[in-house]
C-alpha cells in the first residue's frame, strides 16, 4: 500500500481561480476546511477512484457555497500587499509602513516612531512577497506576546477566572482563539491585534470561560454574558469585519 500524498488544484469562482490542495491519506472519512493559502480537502486514499472524484466534486461545491455567502474570503488567498506609507491600525496604536530597498528581506518595528520597517529587493513603494507577510505575522506575534499575556491575566483576575498557564499568539485561518483546559493554555489569533480593544477583550473572555466550561453549554454562555454583556455585538463585529483583519 502506498503512502499518503497531495496535489494542487483550483476552484473557479466569479472568474477567479481559488487555490485548492487535495490530500489523499488513510482516514475514515473526507474532511473539508479553509487553510491559510488554499481550501484543503482530505480524501480517504483507500477509496475507489470514482468515489474520490465524487467527494472532490462535493467539496468544490461546498467551497463555492462558502465563498458565495462571503465573497470577501477570496482576499484570504491573495498575497498581502504592503504599501509605503500605509497605516496598520492595531488595538493600541497605528503603525506606519516604511519600505526600504535592501538585498535581503527584513522586518522590524521602531516603537518610538510607530514605524514598521520592511526591507526587501522589490521596488521601494510596495511589496507582496509571501515570505515577507509571514515575517510580519511572526514579528507582531513576538512584539505583542507579553502585552496580550498581561491583558489576559488582568481580565482573568478581574472576573475571577482560573489563571492560564500559557497565553500565546498564533496566526490562525478559521479560529479567533482556542483553549486547552487540561493544560491551562490559551491561544489567540494574531489577527485580533487589528481589532478594537473591546473585541479583543471579548475573545479573551470567551477563551478564559473555557477554562471553566470546556464546551458551549448554556452555563458557558451565561458566564460569557456575565463577564461581557455585549459579547453578541462583538461576535457580530468579527463576523462582519473579521476577513478584513490581515497582517
Return the structural class. Answer: alpha/beta
* Beta fraction: 25-35%
- Helical content (DSSP H or I, runs of 4+): 25-40%
The total beta strand count reads 13
Second CATH tier, the architecture of the largest domain: 2-Layer Sandwich
The CATH class label of the largest domain is Alpha Beta
Major sheet summary line = 4 strands, mixed
Number of helices: 5
Q: How would the global form be characterised?
A: globular
Reported by name, the CATH topology of the largest domain is Zincin-like
Radius of gyration: 21 Å
Query: How many structural domains?
Result: 2
N- and C-termini, Cα separation:
42 Å
Low-confidence stretches: none
**Can you tell me the CATH superfamily of the largest domain?**
Metalloproteases ("zincins"), catalytic domain
- Spatial order of the strands forming the largest sheet: 1-2-4-3
Order of helices and strands: EEEEHEEEEEEHEEEHHH
Q: Overall mean pLDDT score?
A: 90
Structure report:
With 247 residues, this protein is an alpha/beta fold. It has 5 helices and 13 strands. The chain has helices spanning 49-69, 130-158, 197-209, 218-227, 231-241, and strands at residues 5-13, 16-25, 31-34, 39-44, 82-83, 87-89, 94-101, 106-110, 115-120, 126-127, 166-170, 177-180, 185-189. It has a 4-stranded mixed sheet with strand order 1-2-4-3, with helices on one face. Strands 6-7-9-8 form a 4-stranded mixed sheet, covered by helices on one side. Helix 2 (130-158) crosses helix 3 (197-209) and helix 3 (197-209) crosses helix 5 (231-241). The protein starts with a strand and ends in a 6-residue tail after the last helix. 24% of the residues are buried. The model has no long low-confidence stretch (mean pLDDT 90).
